[in-house]
Amino acid sequence: MRYSYNKDKSKVVFAGREDLNASFKDLSAVCDSIRYRNAAEAMEILEAIKSGSRPVLYLRHNKHMGSRHELGGRKGRFPKKCAGMIKNILTTAMANATAKGKDPESMVISHASANKTQIISRSPSKGILYHSGGYGYASLRRSDLELAKVEIGLSEVDQIELGPEKIRLIKANNERYLKKKASGKKQSPQRKPHKEVPKQESKKVEDKPKPQEKPVQAEKQPEKSLPKPEEKSNNLPMVESQAANTASQNSNPGKKSPDEAKKDDKNDGE
Questions:
Q1: pLDDT digits 0-9 by tens, 120-163
Q2: How many helices (H) and strands (E) does the chain have?
Q3: What are the chain's domains?
Q4: What is the pTM of this model?
Q5: Cα–Cα 20 to 30 A to 155, which of 6, 50, 162, 205?
Q6: What span, in angstroms and rounded, lies between the C-alpha atoms of 121 and 142?
């Protein structure tokens, strides 16, 4: 297999595969996510993409693609099929490095690319094409099969033939990963994979909060009844009125009482 690496190939351990039945656009996006990273870290990234817990950033070929909050609002996707293919190729590259007496976990991916290889033209069968009559273009007139290839190269950090900025970036990424590995911290996934939750047959009754007990109030003591004032006898006003009548009669002896006047009027009428 001819590799497109244009530097000294003796310092790089290669692995590749041709005629893959996959989109070269998705393959190239996955290669961008693992390029210039430690081989062991790249394996973890590919495993996370394959499980659906980490999206892949698409810098190109992202028309009408949704944005992902894990990527800070940038466009991305989960190419699980392509991640599995590249993982197998990376495993082969690490095995080749072990066969050459090198430590693959300390090596860095210095080369990762994906390209289109060939296009196989296909058309529907004769019966489908002629029986449909081409009415409304219901049947597919042409369906091409596009194949792709992937190349991965591993090299040691001190033997990378790149610019100073790329080498500085590669060393920083490698040191960060080795420190994290030494401390024993695992990389937390950015997105949890979807799990089907079984339906519960019976819903548990939630414990209702108990009503708060009202504070006990002290019993009210009956108020002391005040003594009622003594009622005056009703005979006093009558006595006073009789005394007043007698006093008036004594003071005016010539005047007759009203009762006597009534009797005199009756006698006169008779």
A1: 987 766 555 555 555 545 455 667 889 999 999 999 988 888 88
A2: 7, 5
A3: 24-116+152-183 (3.90.470.10)
A4: 0.63
A5: 50
A6: 7
